């Protein structure tokens, strides 16, 4: 999981300044996409039903993005 990678700081061994920077470099992607991936990974950890569905392949990252936006204070148990 991306959040665990971020917390572990394993990205430092390659000289990266952050997990997002490491992901961007390795994936040849955009910085904003890497930052979104880190942010979304952190949010989904507080959404057990969503995490389970994602892990089981029942939903995709795009679904998680929508659900994370809808998840607000007082609604945590729904996600």
What features would you describe in this structure?
- The protein has 79 residues and is mainly alpha-helical.
- The protein contains 5 helices and no strands.
- The longest helix has 14 residues.
- The radius of gyration is 13 Å and the shape is elongated.
- 15% of the residues are buried.
- The mean pLDDT is 88.
Please describe the structure with a list of short key phrases separated by commas or semicolons.
79 residues, mainly alpha
Rg over alpha carbons? 13 Å
- The chain-level mean pLDDT equals 88
Note poorly predicted spans.
Answer: none
Our measurement of the CA-to-CA distance between the termini, rounded to an integer number of angstroms, reads: 18 Å
Give the helix/strand class: mainly alpha
SSE string? HHHHH
| Helix content percent band | 55-70%
The main pleated sheet reads as: none
According to DSSP, the number of beta strands is: 0
The global form is: elongated
How much of the sequence lies in strands comes to: under 5%
Helix count from the secondary structure assignment? 5
Topology (elements, then pairings):
Elements: H1 2-8, H2 19-27, H3 31-44, H4 48-55, H5 61-70
Helix pairs in contact: 2-3
Summary, kept brief:
The chain has 79 residues and is mainly α. It has 5 helices and no strands.
